[in-house]
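Objective 1b: paired records.
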Amino acid sequence: MDSKERELLQLIEKNGRLENSTIARLMGISEDETEQMIEKLEKEKVILGYSAIINWTKGTDEGAVTAMIDVKVTPKRGVGFDKVAERIYRFPEVKAVYLMSGVYDLSVSIEGKNMAEVGRFVSEKLSTIDSVISTTTHFILKKYKHDGLVFSENEEDKRIVVSP
């Protein structure tokens, strides 16, 4: 990957809605070059998709629950943790799976309609996988920052008041 591709990736990672003309201008290349570079990176699966970060607590009654689950597993011979992780990430509730260092092997992020639904997922789907030894579930109570964006309730002005 060359430096221009890396620069393009950094731009669209910060704002996936940038138009190709804007990206081209910011990078000092033609719009055609930009389009070709994006197509190449999508084809090579470097760019996997584009998504919006939504603050669901604003203006909605959505009661979705997000949980982070620490999972201790027995790795499979010849494939390590990969096959176990693949089996877990195929469930539609699962939003992310990470191989971790430390006490637990996998960190699994899931979303459910409520805590009971998350509990059913853990007890009926996740815990029943042969390689799973144990799980610890943590419910996200409030998001303060996600993907570099702050979810702030109050935009308090922290400047010092200057008066005559």
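Objective 1b, second protein:
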Amino acid sequence: MAERATIARPYAKAAFEYARDAKGVAGWSQALKTASEIVSDPRVAALTKSPAWTSADLVGLVTDVAGSKLDAGMQNFVRVLAENRRLLLLPEISTHYEALRSAVENTIDVEVISAVPLDSAQKEKLSAALSTRLKRQVRMQNSVDSTLLGGAVVRAGDLVIDGSLKGRLERLATDLTSKN
């Protein structure tokens, strides 16, 4: 897995530099996600490994499926990846691209999993608190997991804050069993 990341990194950097120069960082972000989803489909992934499909065939497939979501620059990027048999690296390239984008924009993606849906006031308050703590602008994704019983789990990069009732009960159980 580390090898894929190592190979993907220079492609992501080149894509980011091109997008930044073209003032299309957000557009390229979305285009990379779209192309990643296409090549992640098992049917398409199988075709990329087939010697019967040329790089031009693969580029045509990806660009046809994506439609207008890929501009000329992104289509050329897909062409370069196909010619070098690197299309299957698009998910890793997209991940590295997003990391570069976050560093430049001083943002961070935060996943909040709560026991119940958060209302808009709770989302704003949590976002502001996380922005202060992380010293970055927060892009928050919310989901609900009723097994948490109460509270929430926050994931931001390597940081995990487990404020769920389920997590507290598990820690309490561990503490009680380790003292015996």
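The longest strand covers residues 107-114. Strands lie at 107-114, 137-144, 152-156, 159-162.
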